[in-house]
Design a protein that fits this description.
Layout: H1 7-16, E1 25-26, E2 36-37, H2 40-47, E3 56-60, H3 62-74, E4 82-86
Parallel strand pairs: 1-2, 3-4
């Protein structure tokens, strides 16, 4: 599955830890079986709309992190249970 990595490792963690949830997703193209279509934050919030007493870990583009942090709070997560690391991915060109 192009663009997805550590799938088997994430599935193993989900198997080993019942409080760990993993849903691979892609935002472009047709997803194969077992893969959701959409942005990761939208897929997660749709699957788990009630976040009361949850810990939420966010990382990625600053705009996405900011938006999802607010939505997680509105969906019941306490601010002290929302951990985030916003960053820009540096582009590189191979010459």
């Amino acid at each position: 599955m192009d663009g997805l990595y550590w799938i088997e490792e994430m599935r193993q963690l989900q198997h080993d830890y019942p409080n760990f949830h993993y849903t691979p997703c892609i935002s472009r193209g047709d997803p194969p079986d077992g893969v959701a279509k959409g942005r990761a934050n939208d897929v997660a919030l749709a699957a788990y709309p009630d976040l009361k007493n949850w810990r939420v870990y966010l990382c990625g583009h600053p705009d996405m992190v900011k938006q999802t942090k607010m939505q997680a709070f509105l969906n019941g997560a306490a601010m002290h249970d929302i951990y985030s690391d916003a960053f820009h991915v540096a582009s590189s060109s191979l010459d």
